[in-house]
Every structure is written in C-alpha cells, then in structure tokens.
C-alpha cells in the first residue's frame, strides 16, 4: 500500500474530483490498480500517473472521452501523430468559424451602437448609396400577420444553421410597395436573414443597389406607418420615384431587447 495512492490523494494531486475518477473507472477508461475487497476503496499506482496525465491533456486538447478511450487501447507515436494532426485540422476549422462569427457580431454591435446613438427626435430621411447585400429569404404566409412574419424569420435562421451558411445574425422583411401605398405597412411578403453570396441555398438573392432613401424607425413595429408616411412624403417633395419594394433591417429587435419601445428598424427604399 506504500506505493499506491488513494482516490482522494490522486484527485488532489491532479486537481480533479473523485467523481471524475469513479466515472473513468466505470467506463473503463482509467481503472485503479487495486480495489480493496473489504471496503471497495480504489488505489492507483505511481506508474498510472502518466496515463492519467495523457487522458487529461487529450481532453484539454479537445478529444472526447470516447476518442481518448479508443486511442489509448494501443497507441504508438505514429497513431498519436495521425490523431493529433487530425485534431489540429479540426481546431483550425473551429478557429476559422469563430473568427467569422466574431466579425459578424462585431458588425452587429457597430450597427446597434450607431443607430442607438441617433437622436430619436431626429428621425430624418437620408439619401444614400447602397451596395448589394445578399439575403436568405422565406415567404411570409397570408394573412401576413406578425405571427406569420415571426414564423418565416425563424425558418430563415433554421435553414441557415442547418446549411451552415455565413449569416450576419440580422433579420428583416420585404414589404411590397403597393401595400405600403395602400397603408398596409406591416404586411411583409418575405422575411430574410443577411448572408453572403453562396450556392449552398437556392433562396439567396441580392438586394438592389444604388441610390435609396432610408430612415431609422424607433419604437414599436406596429407604429412603423409614421416612418413610411415620412418617406413617401419626402420622395414626393423631392421628385424621387420609388423603384423597389421596402427593405427593413432589424437593428435592435427581440435578439437584443425584450422592450419593444427600444426596437430600431432601418427602412430602405430604392429611388431614381
């Protein structure tokens, strides 16, 4: 017994819990060198410490317990090198994915900060040059209610996650121009999420590009009619012909606030 470590001693040295060692024993990954037949106490030999170190290091690198167990049944320098190279490639893919996600989140934060810094009292119409953006669309089903819009939006996100599309974590809707002119400001025909140009999904299309009028709408989406009236009046006064449906981009929405009075929607209408 002098050359053996109790489960408590080993847990203390390795800074892991006794429950972890018991679990490793149960799944056959790391079994004690000796179990006292009278009390069931587990004891480990000094020779086993390196083996446990290897398990903990491989776990830190990112291997699953199942992968570790399969590898350590009979491993050599060659098999270890193959496995480690494979894990290195996996880590590189995860880094690339996290880098992409980070850039998307940074963009979303910048959009929210710029919009939130705008004074609500100055919801002014802007004329700007807009570049092409790519949108993953889903049709909104009749009667085009808020519920129908929500369902279409969730279908967009679900499809994007399933197909691993490079999305920007920003949603929006398209409202047909004829509905806007008739006063049906919230009856969107399509929901979308912002993405990149890719052939991995058939329902990705570009937005128009060129001159557009835009405006940030602050507050409840149900009140968006006041912003549309302002846009229509601006176009009429300045002799601008509206040549597109409306593109609404959610800047601050349910993803970032549960207070609808804080919602910010950017409306874009292309003109000439």
Instruction: Please state the structural category.
Output: alpha+beta
Query: What is the helix fraction of residues, given as a range?
Result: 40-55%
Low-confidence segments, ≥5 residues, pLDDT <50?
A: none
Number of helices: 8
Structure description:
This protein is of the alpha+beta class and 272 residues long. The protein is built from eight helices and eleven strands. It has helices at 7-14, 18-26, 49-61, 65-71, 77-117, 146-162, 177-181, 225-237; strands spanning 4-6, 34-35, 42-45, 126-130, 134-139, 171-175, 190-195, 204-206, 210-218, 242-252, 264-271. The protein is elongated and about 95 Å long.
Briefly, what is this?
With 272 residues, this protein is of the alpha+beta class. The protein has eight helices and eleven strands.
